[in-house]
Every structure is written in C-alpha cells, then in structure tokens.
C-alpha cells in the first residue's frame, strides 16, 4: 500500500519536475545569449576605442609635421629676404645709404618749392629765421619753414638764385646729390653733407632744416 502511494506520488510529481527543468534550461539559454551579446558589444567598443586612438595619433603626427614644415619654410623665406635686402643695399652709393628715410614725391616737391619761392620774396631778413648753406667759398641763407627739408630749400634756392644742383632719386632711400654749381661727382669724389661741422645722419630729402644750422656740402672722397 505504501509502495503504491509512493509510486503514484512520484508519477504525479514527474511532470512538474520536467517543467521546472525546462525553465532552468531556458533561463540558462537566455543567460548565455546575454553573455554573448555583452561580450560582442564589449569587443566592438574596444575596437572602436583602438581605432579612435590610432586615428588621433596619425592626425596629431600630421599636424606636427605640417607645423614644423611651415616654420622651416617661413625661416627660409625670412633669411632669403634679409640676404636680398643686404645685397641690394651694398650696391647703393655712399651718400644714398645715408640718405633720407622718407621719399619726396614730385607732387610734394612741387608744392613745397612753390611755397618756399613765395616765402623768399619777402624783403625783410631776420637772421634768427634762417639756416646757412655753405658750398666752398659761397654761402646762402635758407628761410625756415615748418617741416621743410634741405632738398625743398635747395629747390627754392635754385629757382631764385644762381645756385644749381642735380641728382637722382632712389626709391626708399631718398635723393642723391650728384652735382652742385656745375661740379659733378667723379673719380671717387662725391658731395658729402655736413650739419654744424659733423657728417649728417640724413640725406637732403630727409634732413629737416632748423634755425641757425650751418649746412655744408663738401666735395670729397
């Protein structure tokens, strides 16, 4: 009787055990599936990270190379420009190297010359308002006008007296005096400019004349 009951009881429990086992199998399958999915996602993420790192490294290297190339090119161009400027400067005459820092254009020369001519027609002379131009044994009074250069004064003097000069304009350097009162530069001799007994730091087109100055052109080597 007991044996039969146990047998029937086991027979009644068997289906439940099978269902339970089935559930366990499904749960294990889902767990494995989740594991594989997570593992795949992790691998994809790692590959993406490595790709980004490699790309960033290549980009940085290319940028650094481009920057260094640009700096080297700029340095080369700067050196070439300095060499060219130095070479061109060496060919300029001695007086042109010392010449004006500002270039006098024909329009400015004409306007200033006209103003100077009008000023020189004034009959009264006040020594305190003149600079003195000396050339050998000859001397001339140069009226003082605001911001007037020696070249302006010489142009006015040429138009109103027997004083005569000629020369050449060098772009960016100023006016180079080549002849004064018929005596031209030759055989290594040039007209050199002095102010108050000292060699001038400026040429005729840049020297602003001042009251009482002694300005002298000397014919020397």
Summarize the structure.
The protein has 221 residues and is of the alpha+beta class. Helices cover 54% and strands 19% of the residues. The radius of gyration is 49 Å and the shape is rod-shaped.
Description:
This protein is α+β, with helices and mostly antiparallel strands. The chain folds into two domains: 1-91; 96-220, Ferric Hydroxamate Uptake Protein, Chain A, domain 1 (Beta Complex), CATH 2.170.130. The protein is built from four helices and eight strands, in the order αααββαββββββ. The chain has helices spanning 2-90, 94-97, 106-120, 150-160, and strands spanning 130-135, 138-143, 165-170, 174-180, 183-184, 190-195, 198-199, 214-220. The strands form two sheets. It has a five-stranded mixed beta sheet. β6 (190-195) and β7 (198-199) form a beta hairpin. α3 (106-120) packs across α4 (150-160). The longest helix is centred in the first third of the chain and has 89 residues, at 2-90. The radius of gyration is 49 Å and the shape is rod-shaped. The model is unreliable at 1-5, 7-13, 83-92 and 96-123 (pLDDT under 50).
Which word captures the global form?
rod-shaped
Helix content: 40-55%
Uncertain runs: 1-5, 7-13, 83-92, 96-123
Structural class computed from helices and strand pairing = alpha+beta
Domain unit count:
2
Number of strands: 8
Biggest sheet, spatial arrangement of strands: 2-1-8-6-7
End-to-end gap: 150 Å
Largest sheet: 5 strands, mixed
SSE order, one letter for each helix or strand = HHHEEHEEEEEE
Q: What is the architecture of the largest domain at the second tier of CATH?
A: Beta Complex
The CATH first-level class of the largest domain comes to: Mainly Beta
Mean pLDDT: 75
Separate helix tally: 4
Strand content: 15-25%
CATH topology of the largest domain: Ferric Hydroxamate Uptake Protein, Chain A, domain 1
The Cα radius of gyration reads 49 Å
